[in-house]
Each structure stands twice: as C-alpha cells, then as structure tokens.
TrEMBL record:
PANTHER family membership: INNER MEMBRANE ABC TRANSPORTER (PTHR30465), OLIGOPEPTIDE TRANSPORT SYSTEM PERMEASE PROTEIN APPB (PTHR30465:SF0)
Species this protein is from: Nitrosospira briensis
Protein name: Peptide/nickel transport system permease protein
InterPro entries to which the protein is assigned, alphabetical: BPD_transp_1_N, MetI-like, MetI-like_sf
Subcellular location: Cell membrane
Biological classification of the source: Bacteria, Pseudomonadati, Pseudomonadota, Betaproteobacteria, Nitrosomonadales
Alphabetical keyword list: Cell membrane, Membrane, Transmembrane, Transmembrane helix, Transport
GO biological process, one term: transmembrane transport
Main location: membrane
Amino acid sequence: MLNYIIRRVLYAVPILIGVNLITFTLFFVVNTPDDMARMQLGIKRVTPEAIAKWKQERGYDKPLIFNDAENGAAKFTNTVFFEKSVAMFAFRFGRADDGRDIAYEIRTRMMPSLAIALPVFLLGLGVYIVFALTMVFFRATYVDFWGVVLCVALMSISSLFYIIAGQFLISKLWHLVPISGYGQGLDAAKFLVLPVIIGVLSGAGANTRWYRTLFLEEMGKDYVRTARAKGLPESIVLFGHVLRNALIPILTGAVVVIPLLFLGSLITESFFGIPGLGSYTIDAINSQDFAVVRAMVFLGSLLYIVGLILTDISYTLVDPRIRLE
C-alpha cells in the first residue's frame, strides 16, 4: 500500500502543474497585468508610471510563460508563471495583490468554512441515508412513491431559492436567526443554523435518490435472497447486509468530499456573509486578484487528489477483498 500511495503522490505533481498552467492561461486571457493594475490602483491614480511600479512590486513585470531575453533554462524560470507557481508546492502562497498575506487569510478563514461545511456534510449524510433506507424499506408503497416525488421536487429547485426563501421566512419574517453575519465562539452558532439547514435541504433530493438507487441495486443480489431464505427479518437484511455492502459507492462520494470541506461553499458564504474561504475566493474573482485565485485553485486541486487517495485506502477497510498492490 505504501508503494501505491507514493505513486499516487508522484502522479499528483504533473496534475497540479497542469492545473496551474490552465488556470494561469485562462486568467491572463481575460486580464493582462496592466488590467489588474488599473483595477487595483483605481481610475484616479492610473498612470503609466504607477502601473509599471505596481507590476514591478508584485512580480508581474516579467514575461508570462516564456522569456525571449534569457538563455537556457532561464527562458522558462525567469517568468511570472514559474515564480508564482513553484513556491506554492512549498505552500508559500505569497501576498495578495492588495498586500495581505494569503497563507494567513487561509488559516483565519478555514474555521468559519468548516463550521458550515462539516455539519452540513455529517448531518446531510445521516439524513440522506436514513431517508433512502426508509423508502427502500417501504418500496412499492405510497411512502416510496411520494418520497421519490419529493426528491424530484427538491432537485428541481435551485439552491439560490432555498437561500433567499430561508432568509426571507426564518430571518426577516419570523426573526428566529440573523439574516447574515458571523460571530466568535458560541455566538457563531446562531449565524450557522440557517446555512446548515439550507445546505442539508438543498442536497436532499439528489443525494437521497442516489442512495436509494444503490440500496435497490443491492436488494436484487443473491446474498439478499439467501438472507431472506434463512428467515432473517427485512430490517436485519436491510440495515445489517444491504447498508454494509453499499458502503463502497457511498464512500466514493463521501471521502472525496471530506478534504474539500476546508474550502467552504462559494454561494452560501457569500449570501450569509460568512468570512470563510468560499467568500474569500468570490471576492478575489470579483477584484481580479490572481494571486488569491491561483492559491485557491491549487489548494482545491491538492485537496481533491488527497480525497481520491483516501477513497482508495478506505476501500480496503470496508471490503477485505480489495488490496492496493
């Protein structure tokens, strides 16, 4: 298994380089360093001298990917892409275009993102599985039929509707929780209740239907018929056998998501004013802060690869037949 993990880590290096190259290319297709300088400096202070100084201070005065003026390897190393990308592999993200330290911002905003994402993930996983098992237990009945109808209805509604409707009803009309904002310590709980409920509700339709499909597929296999032939109750068959054997595909979707919880939710944090990594990324995109966007894309790619490795490892825990060689 150790050799497998080492190979996967080595495979991740060219993937991360490719992701950075694509992000770099797409960003500078839309914005040149001059455009970035004009946005940061403001209309009143934009002069050729100010733009040149801004670019020099932030390292954007060099060629983007290829430097014709240099010789040998310096043609590629003395460029914006190389100098801005290589340091990230040592987790040195540098400073944002507005001067703030990106690593400090990530450490500060990580906990507010986790405060929303972790409860949504854990609570949602439990709710979706229980709801799906209930429909499978009462399959071919009105409980199953109306459960599927409800899931389809929930899937058909945009997540923005849940956010706007929840803020209007629960916060503005009923005044149960604040409409947006964030606090420190236990005071943050009242700001997190509504985003967590909306996060679980918005994902209920798609996830519950998926889990229901997994459980129904397991119900048609031979081991289920054997368990029934032995006289086991349907509840034991469902919760003791079907659920356990459906853990592999469930882990595929669940374990991959765990590392990405650190990045938060872009839409939810923006609408509820949560100072997490999601809103940080949205603000960076709006302000065309390439340093922050590049750092967040790199971090997201890295966490996703970690999630894939954890998924493969978790297979061996739930299915002894699988061995990573």
